[in-house]
Amino acid sequence: MATGTGTAATGAARTAALLLLSLVLALAPRASGAAGAGGGDCHFPAIFNFGDSNSDTGGLSSLFGAAPPPNGRTFFGMPAGRYCDGRLVIDFIAESLGIPYLSAYLNSIGSNFTQGANFATAGSSIRRQNTSLFLSGFSPISLDVQSWEFEQFINRSEYVYNSKGGIYRELLPRAEYFSQALYTFDIGQNDITSSYFVNNSTAEVEATIPDLMERLTSVIQSVYARGGRYFWIHNTGPLGCLPYSLLHRPDLASPMDGAGCSVTYNKVAQLFNLRLKETVASLRKTHPDAAFTYVDVYTAKYKLITETKKLGFDDPLLTCCGHGGRYNFDLNIGCGGKKQVNGTWVVGNSCEDPSKRVSWDGVHFTEAANKFVFDQIVAGALSDPPVPLKRACQSKGR
């Protein structure tokens, strides 16, 4: 009798414990995919990136020839499709989220799209360029083309993943990842510079910005229509601090600010960023079920340029990989390129220590500079709303 009573008591205790556990689980915050409910990290399973050379991990190299050595020397030990000595901001973003470096959508060799894809290509712009890459240096893969690639990627990957199986399941994302992923955008720089490079006036360049915002909005809405809900959108940097901008339009180089940057160029970049911030706010109102984070990369980059000595860098406008002149930059001899001058071959070589330079090749930042920018933005201090990268799913309706 005593044994039976003990067994019953034990059973009742177990039942009560199970009920209590069920209640705790029911009340506990639950994360579904990237939902991150309850204030925890979002756990994005994938990243899909759109942009230009600031985030290109191999797109242009796949199309028009690889970025030559010494690109990639610092981190990869060889060219890795990036116009940089090492990693880009998008690489540090992927690292911080526990996601492998993004393969370029256009790269057919050795790519793994399990946790995302990169549609960015160097030289890309929001608007289509009315010229060729060989004439202007700007890519034909404009933002609308990148969005078409994304739609094709979704359609084909879902079909192949489910129909063929096998190795494709190891190389392509799950269908649910498209609604749980982080969508990153870093584009607009080339729209401003390309307009200036065909000798447009500042007023003419500024007049294009409303159209740029409309086109960007259209692409973001198309991504939203395909399931995207979490957006991390970078503004453009201080273009007036880039040697290639200053040398392409020397008439705009002055007046200069205290750092030696073009005031005119930077004012246009600031106007672009103001309109971009307004555009992101408008998207937030239109789609309250999505999370849109505006990231002020301009402030991070300008801080680096104006406080270089304090931060351990040297001359912020002196290019690491290049040749000749005030900026160690020649419009006709790019990083890794060469040209015959008076019977002698002149080569665009790397400086001895890229970690001390801000500018890698007169257009792009070094890995060390990119790491500084990432460190400035990852915690959300320069974002609107001010949410950290890992919680970028939590800014819905804000």
From TrEMBL:
Signal peptide residue numbers: 1-33
InterPro entries xrefs: GDSL (IPR001087), SGNH_hydro_sf (IPR036514), SGNH_plant_lipase-like (IPR035669)
Molecular-function annotations in GO: hydrolase activity, acting on ester bonds
Taxonomic source organism: Panicum hallii var. hallii
Key words of the record: Glycoprotein, Hydrolase, Signal
UniProt-recorded name of the protein: GDSL esterase/lipase
Annotated PANTHER family: ALPHA-L-FUCOSIDASE 3 (PTHR22835:SF588), ZINC FINGER FYVE DOMAIN CONTAINING PROTEIN (PTHR22835)
Protein family per UniProt: Belongs to the 'GDSL' lipolytic enzyme family.
